[in-house]
Amino acid sequence: MRKEYDFSKATKNPYVSKVKKQITIRLDEDAIEYFKTISDEIGIPYQSLINLYLRDCAAKNRKLNIDWK
Predict the structure, then answer these.
(1) What is the per-residue pLDDT for 1?
(2) What is the rounded distance in angstroms from the CA atom of residue 36 to the CA atom of residue 39?
(3) 44 CB contacts (<8 Å, ≥6 apart)?
(4) Quick check: 1 and 8 in contact, CB under 8 A?
(5) Cα–Cα–Cα angle for 47, 49, 50, nearest 5°?
(6) What are the tens digits of pLDDT across the range 20-53?
(7) H or E segment and range at residue 42
(8) How many CB atoms within 10 Å of residue 50?
(9) CA distances for 43 relative to 4, 20, 69, angstroms
(10) Are 40 and 54 in contact (CB under 8 A)?
(11) Of 26, 9, 20, nearest to 48 (Cα)?
(12) 18, 20, 31, 68: which has the fewest C-beta neighbours closer than 10 Å?
């Protein structure tokens, strides 16, 4: 590795704003098992699968139809 690097012509990372943020979320065990089962079938980690599903819902502006009776 060089002792000195020249970063004078470096550009800022355009993807830095798209970095994932770690949070804590409470999910039912049934929901976790559902995504784990699907993730085993298709070979994607279940947390990534949940993220993909939530991104798809957000992109399509899906709303839950909740009817409390």
Answers:
(1) 59
(2) 5
(3) 52
(4) no
(5) 65
(6) 888 999 999 999 999 999 999 999 999 999 999 9
(7) helix 29-42
(8) 20
(9) 42, 21, 39
(10) no
(11) 20
(12) 68
Report residue 19 as tokens. 């970095």
* Residue found by looking up tokens 């590795």 in the block: 1
Report CA-CA distances (Å) from 48 to 13, 22, 26, 51: 23, 12, 16, 5
15-22: which pairs have CB atoms within 8 A and are 24 or more residues apart? Answer: 20/51
**The two three-digit tokens of residue 20, written as one number:** 């994932």
pTM of the full structure: 0.68
Q: The tokens of 8 are what?
A: 């004078």
